[in-house]
């Protein structure tokens, strides 16, 4: 996982523990005051939300405990595509330029230009160097990209 990915998960964890969890506990307490819990929709909704929050807290804590955080800015730039780098690609056929950052699965957001390291495009790029032409199989066929630059941002 990248440094930014770790920070994002830690921020979400803090929000869940310090804001969301107390809010749901308060909602459960208020719903209990309304009496009969079997037919109390507010109580059941709050309990469901509490279950979701607790599950997400456990999931984030587990990911953070097992994560290997890689700060690509501290790795020498050899021009080779590795996890965490930002890659500028040029479509050989139509000269269209795209930029992707190769990140962990939890950080992936194609609209923001963040590719999961396990995506077909990232897998085809990892290990290649600046200047290489890479054929990447996409749903519409095969696209050839030239790796214009590899940046450690």
Description of the molecule:
Helices cover 41% and strands 22% of the residues. It contains three helices and five strands; from the N terminus they run ααβββαββ. The protein has a five-stranded mixed sheet. β4 and β5 form a beta hairpin. α1 runs antiparallel to α2. The radius of gyration is 22 Å and the shape is elongated. 17% of the residues are buried. The model has no long low-confidence stretch (mean pLDDT 91).
Q: Name the CATH architecture of the largest domain.
A: Roll
Structural class: alpha+beta
Count of discrete domains = 2
Mean pLDDT across all residues, rounded? 91
Beta content:
15-25%
Largest sheet: 5 strands, mixed
CATH fold assignment of the largest domain: Chitinase A, domain 3
CATH superfamily of the largest domain: Transcription elongation factor, GreA/GreB, C-terminal domain
Which regions contain 5 or more consecutive residues with pLDDT less than 50?
Answer: none
Radius of gyration: 22 Å
Helix content: 40-55%
Number of helices: 3
How would you sum up the global shape?
A: elongated
Number of strands: 5
Order of helices and strands: HHEEEHEE
Main-sheet strand order equals: 3-2-1-5-4
What are the defining features of this structure?
153 residues; alpha+beta; Helix Hairpins; Chitinase A, domain 3; 2 domains; 5-stranded mixed β-sheet; 3 helices; 41% helix; elongated
